[in-house]
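Q: I'm building a small set of examples for a reading group on sequence design. Run inverse folding on the following structure and report the sequence directly after it, with nothing in between.
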């Protein structure tokens, strides 16, 4: 089966909320937040399905007077990890931002999330800032950025 990547709709809410709860133990988006993001002109929420099962999602945020887009979140279902889902979502996010005229893509990541950091570095993201005590539980974060040439 070939995975399907598309813009999220309200039909995806139940699976999005379940994936969010299974993936993150902090700052989880709820049903109402996802509903608002699906219709927001400043949010780009994409889902990747295989056989009607949500494999992952990506969420990009934009601001009116900024050409720097923010990759707010990528979540990959446990059953889909190690299968290139994160890579597909990241490549799509980069391409979408470029296509819409962004000059850079920025994100935050926990300093101990080595798998994510390695993925971002493979796509030339660089650490531009250390964010002390950024996450709940006093965990530090990195701000990473990919500047498009």
């Amino acid at each position: 089966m070939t995975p399907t990547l598309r813009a999220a709709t309200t039909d995806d809410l139940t699976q999005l909320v379940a994936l969010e709860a299974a993936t993150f133990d902090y700052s989880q988006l709820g049903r109402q937040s996802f509903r608002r993001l699906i219709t927001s002109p400043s949010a780009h929420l994409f889902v990747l399905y295989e056989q009607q099962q949500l494999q992952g999602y990506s969420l990009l945020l934009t601001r009116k007077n900024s050409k720097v887009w923010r990759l707010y979140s990528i979540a990959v279902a446990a059953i889909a990890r190690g299968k290139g889902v994160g890579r597909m979502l990241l490549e799509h996010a980069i391409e979408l931002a470029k296509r819409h005229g962004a000059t850079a893509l920025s994100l935050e990541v926990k300093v101990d999330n080595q798998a994510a950091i390695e993925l971002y570095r493979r796509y030339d993201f660089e650490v531009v800032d250390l964010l002390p005590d950024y996450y709940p539980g006093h965990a530090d974060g990195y701000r990473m950025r990919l500047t498009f040439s």
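The longest strand covers residues 126-135.
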